[in-house]
Amino acid sequence: MSVTARIITSIGDRTIDAQLICEPGETVALLGPNGAGKSTVLRAIAGLQPITGGCIRIGHETVEEPTSGTFIPAEQRRVGMVFQDYLLFPHMTVRQNIEFGPRNQRKDHDVASWIETLDLSDLLDRKPAQLSGGQAQRVALARALATNPQALLLDEPLAALDAATKQSVRGELRQFLQRYEHGTVLVTHDPLDALVLADRIVVLENGHVTQKGPTAEVASQPRTEYLATLLGVTLIRGTAREGIIDCQGGGRLVTSTSAAGSVVAIIRPQAISLHANRPEGSARNVWHTTITGVDAHHDQVRITLAGPPQLTAAVTPAAVADLGIAPGQEIWASLKATDIAIHQA
Amino acid sequence: MNKATTPAPRLLIALAILALTFLLLPLIGLLLETPWSSLPALLTSPAAAEALRLSIVTSLFAAFFATLLGVPLAWILARKDFPGRRFIRGIVLLPLVLPPVVGGVTLLTAFGRRGLIGQYFYDWFGVQLPFSTAGVVMAATFVAMPFLVITVEGALRSIDTRYEQAARTLGARPRTVLFRITLPLISASLVAGIVLAWARALGEFGATITFAGNFPGVTQTLPLAVYSALEVSREEAIALSLVLLAVSLTVLVSLRGRFLGSRS
Of A198, A214, A230, which marks where a domain is finished? Predict the structure, then answer.
């Protein structure tokens, strides 16, 4: 099911007014700095934070609307929530944690199938304290899904993991979310989570939405200073084999990765150098391409290149003058293999 | 011992030793004067056995009622913000500092035969609460409940309430959250509070003798029996005291400082 929400509320002296639409099967990342109100929005959808205005709909059902006095309490909303530090009940085994929701509904939905899907059969008799971070994350996901929710809410699902685990769990989560039939709202302050996991990104700053759009678009065309600093990256999906990535939209990238299969390549615009003539030197990726856009952005100028693959470069205004950069002009671009970050997807 | 800590002044050490001696000497005195050979006979005498039985029964009932009524009170105090909450908290804690004999007098004014509520109990149902075994339970519950309330309230404040929120998103109604999440999470403190309340009820003297009197077999609990025996047989009083001492020590050791929310 979908989630449609306009959330107006205040927490402390901060006001939040954010609109969010998440279609069935889609993953929407709510991305923003700490304290932006992301978790509050998520808690409001779950019914844990009352709203003072707006409306929350899950599927076709209105679950909260102050103007009409509609308020369905948290326990009756059909959403599954995974909390930042998972909050597995410490006094229960993994099995009891997962069966907790279905027992409350006096049903036993697909407990067994989720246990199998998330590969938990060997962990069922353990207590949460005996689980690794990645295992706890899978249990929390299974527990939320076992209630057969109509939407999934993930609050910083990877923040509690160490760097090495994070990488692999992120990949697993992505595979899962691609197949998941209902809408998923993901809250994160880590751009990589949003880039790898989300179909669309909604940027929340200081309680308000400052940008939203498809992931690749938001990533490559950040419109706020926060986002430009955080991202401004080019996101390329493709298939890796022996260090070469065949990009989905055409073109190839030479990388230093040993990854194989489906990957996401992330390229910072500052890593791309532009040249009037074919560059000498060690860069493994060199393109002769056309400039499709020039966009001054704070103290940088962002140059979009036709590719393939399509790329965004960031240069100083002085370089723009030196190179005589203008839309439609041909130019040489180069990129070192080591400047391409690869994430298994 | 960490060498970096400030050395203790000699005067402080001397006074600390004096304090310890002051606390220890009575215990040693009791142990020295205990008639060990006749102890079994003294403790199994009909009067002693009766007092022991009555003490165990009434203190267990008191612990039960203190828990049944005290846990909801602690929950409200810990979770709900309402006008007069601090005042109510003061009332709850009052029996902790109130001289028990005064507690007994207040119970008489409320539940005595001519008391606020007690007169109706007597007139309508012919029930007389004071000077009955039920009165012993009431007096013990009155003094014991605050121990349970503050222990449980402290525990409720210290647990992460997001577990309860997680349970709600999993479809748990408030009652399910209470019984399957909240109470299990505070189980250690809850047990500590119950044991503490029970121990307090077992040792109750002042409120009991004032409100329930000192009738062997009906209201004469162990502490009251000790007091009565002192006038007749010092040996018997010491033997009964030893039982109460043993119970208190066992409770203290088993709780290991967990009470009053000082740990956990």
Answer: A230
